[in-house]
Amino acid sequence: MNASAKKPSKLLRGATGDWEVVIGMEIHAQVTSNAKLFSGAATAFGGEPNSQVSLVDAAMPGMLPVINVECVRQAVRTGLGLNAKINLKSVFDRKNYFYPDLPQGYQISQYKSPIVGEGEVTVDLEEGESIVVGIERLHLEQDAGKLLHDQHPSMSLVDLNRSGIALMEIVSKPDIRSSEQAKAFVAKLRSILRYLGTCDGDMEKGNLRADVNVSVRKPGEPLGTRCEIKNVNSIRFIGQAIDYEARRQIDVIEDGGAIEQETRLFDPNRGETRSMRSKEEAHDYRYFPDPDLLPLQFSQAFVDDLKAHLPELPDERKARFINDFALSPYDAGVLVAERESAEFFEAVLDALKDRARDGKLAANWVINELFGRLNKEAKSISASPVSAKQLAVIINLIGQATISGKIAKDLFEIVWTEGGDPEALVEARGMKQVTDLGAIEKVVDEIVAANPDKVAQAKAKPAMIGWFVGQVMKASGGKVNPQAVNDLLKIKLGL
Amino acid sequence: MTDLTLLTLAEAREGLASKSFSSLELTDAHLKAVEDARTLNAFVLETPERARSMARAADAKIGKGEGGPLAGIPLGIKDLFATEGVRTTACSNVLDAFVPPYESTVTSQLWRDDAVMLGKLNNDEFAMGSSNETSCFGPVVNPWRRAGSNGAIEGTPLVPGGSSGGSAAAVAANLCLGATATDTGGSIRQPASFAGIVGIKPTYGRCSRWGIVAFASSLDQAGPVAKTVRDAAILMRSMSGHDPKDTTSANLPVPDFEASVGKSVKGMKIGIPKEYRMDGMPDEIEKLWAQGADWLKAAGAELVDISLPHTKYALPAYYIVAPAEASSNLARYDGVRYGLRAPGRNIAEMYENTRAEGFGAEVRRRVMIGTYVLSAGYYDAYYLRAQKVRTLIKKDFEDCFAKGVHAILTPATPSAAFGIGEKGKADPVEMYLNDIFTVTVNMAGLPGIAVPAGKDAQGLPLGLQLIGRPFDEETLFSLGEVVEQAAGRFVAAKWW
To answer: Are A148 and A214 members of one domain?
Structure first.
């Protein structure tokens, strides 16, 4: 798949010329499921240490794993959401290594035969550009526990609550060419997972984290040696880590050095990556098929049934918004990026009296007024003081010309701070737009009479009519219809 | 009163049902026998109080006519089976004084059927061994002894075979009416043969592996050792059955195995595989095999020569697959959560110290072999190739069964019991060769029963093996009964 078919990739300037950065990602996404991958233990976040650990998770002697079918469903759903090949037969392997957070001494993962094969994700960038990033594979595996280093003066303690929780490892092809693309890719993937309900995408809790493979090359040359940056846990850090790492590699090569294949860590405090272990120190994981588990097999009917019940995904929803409400691709993209935002917008649409007429207006209001205000106060959409229903009522009032757009902003402000039914507020506070032509005419006449000099100027320069409209709006407290004022003024001023 | 420990399980069941004696009396008799036989080192843990309380409970149920199929029957449990609240060590120092908070599926089914637990039985450490000499509790002594030319007992004490040496010795010495065992490469059938008793390794998947300390997951299978074919059939019914906690357990109904004991074998086709006629095989084994074939023929079975061409690759392939799985299965014994912890200055040193101190030499050897054959660069040459061999071995059997063969008759072991310390000291392969006739069955996942059929020149019991079709243990019980009826039972003279 050619990721940069549309235009040349973003190049980095070095002392010896331009460099191209090549990025591939491995995303670890915690599967949304009530129980762990191979044990019945609960998966809720934040439990007391070791309160959600079964005998299997603690690797007691003689314990055996049993696959949790819901996790399989989630992986298949995700594969479908990534337009990927679903493998009806896959195999669980053991990845062997010693670490105190790994009770079995091996992680059950999928090595040679993953549950999901190749797929692709379309990623929208700014300025209407978009790229397609290939998906290499998706496989299911167990998460490890967690070491607590701050609980005891000389020992580290182990919390196994996370041990055995299902993860999906989603591996991209090296189709990404800049930190911006990488960030957009992760954001898009996260959005798809959240739409599907297969991963909550909570990067703060570590429920979505990325290993980033970075290499640089001169354009047109073969791939350079890559370094893997482990466990980056925010989209911002992913960008920073790539920018730092690409620059580091360019500097090393331009100084006559060579890149060593190695695993690196990103230190967000210093904004730099540091070597963790070299290729020589890499583990030999001794993968082999887990003899405790039969190959994972399911029917095409199982897949078809999941496919038939998939929710609408961001790309489909975006196309629908563009088609139904003539939104710009950019605006539609903003609305669908987050599942909650899109659902809020849908709820506004559902409460509109005339969605064909006012859908676009509603989109503008959600994007500009609501998102703007939420951003300003660092509030999430779920904490919005103005509900979808309230916003829809405001838009209905605009749409049926009960209030002007200007008044609507005041009304929005009142609902935001004080709450209440917008319709009742408009009634109670006399915010209704004046539609009585006689009343408007009276105000227009007064202003025309009071400003003979401006009248003269307007006759010479018709654009001056705007000044009169402004005066009328001001005098009426914004409650008159500006179009009606404009029409009336044209007559009065003889324009 | 007669010595209750001399009864077979079926006889004891009858006595209990007819109220000739109580389970408590039966249990006490066995507890006394266990105590008197400590020199055999068959039990690593005696649980007399638990046994008596289980016996009383069984008596109460029998009194009300509510006793299960094994009501009041005293059994020994191989220390590989997790027993809730009762120390379970796999006879390894690494598990130290581990007390599981759970009960293995197989043993819980025995208790469901109202059996009585006398205690935990010795075995090779993590079931790795063919002589029960690798146990951290020391070797088990076989109740059988070599008879000299003048009838005197000669030489060093003998091994009971392994890994289920404690189980075999305990049954042969009348310390229990039956015992649980496990078989990864012959660990039920070889000790059964060495001790002159019956042992069956069921089809892979017949018994749940849940709660049994794992050695090699794709080969491990639980089964009973017992005094007679009938007793083995009775025990197996209780031990078998689908377990949703073990993905590899078969979701099949459990037949009434006892019903096939005594069924006619007329017209059955019995395969005699030419590849099991090994170079340098002792004459007495050869004779025993021919004798067994004659008995089956006399009972109306038809003997056919068959070929299992990949037999010679089975042992080397087994000693790749089993250690590979073991190296991974035993990784959990790391000193972090339970069992032994030998401190170190850092985590790597703690691992090293714990595992060096906790594992015996044979276990360490197999962990290293397994780690080696799975490592990058060697995987294809060893593990992958061994898996291919395994597929071919399986196919050998399938081809024979497809030609209408009902079961296959072979010797169970290449020799009778040997002396403690006699084998494997210089060359571990010498010990591994004990499994030559049994590993193929594990590699193919088939059922195999060992039935005592004769004695060697020194008066030690020798067994024959019958290999069956997948999930056709019933045929093996029918055929085994024919051998047992013809050969008679073999009882060790009590000397301890």
So the answer is: yes
Does A66 contact B at CB distance below 8 Å? yes
pLDDT of residue B149 exceeding 70, the answer is no
Q: Is the domain of A94 the same as that of A119? A: yes
What residues make up the domain containing A198? 13-287
Cis peptide before B163 (omega within 30 of 0): yes
Picking from A384, A400, A428, the residue at the C-terminal end of a domain is A428
Q: What are phi and psi of B462, to 5 degrees?
A: -130, 145
Q: What's the rounded Cα separation, in Å, for the pair A422 and A414?
A: 9
**Is residue A295 exposed (0-12), middle (13-18) or buried (19+ Cβ within 10 Å)?**
exposed
Q: A43 lies in a domain? A: yes
Q: Structural domain of residue B35, as residue ranges?
A: 4-267
Q: Do B247 and A98 make contact, defined as CB atoms within 8 angstroms?
A: no
Number of structural domains found in chain B: 1
Per the CB < 8 Å rule, is B247 touching A64?
A: yes
* Chains A–B, number of C-beta pairs less than 8 Å apart: 96
Say which CATH number the domain at A451 has. Answer: 1.10.10.410
> Which of A62-76, A134-148, A197-211, A472-486 has the least mean pLDDT?
A472-486
Kindly determine whether residue B245 and residue A104, on different chains, have CB atoms separated by under 8 Å. no
- Catalytic residue numbers of B read 78, 163, 187
CB proximity under 8 Å: B 9-48 to A: none
Phi-psi region of A420 (alpha: psi -120 to 50; beta: other; left: phi over 0): left
> Is this model's pTM higher than 0.80 or not?
yes
Supply the mean pLDDT for chain B. 96
- For chain A, how many structural domains are there in total? 3
Residue A63: list chain B partners with CB under 8 A: 210-211
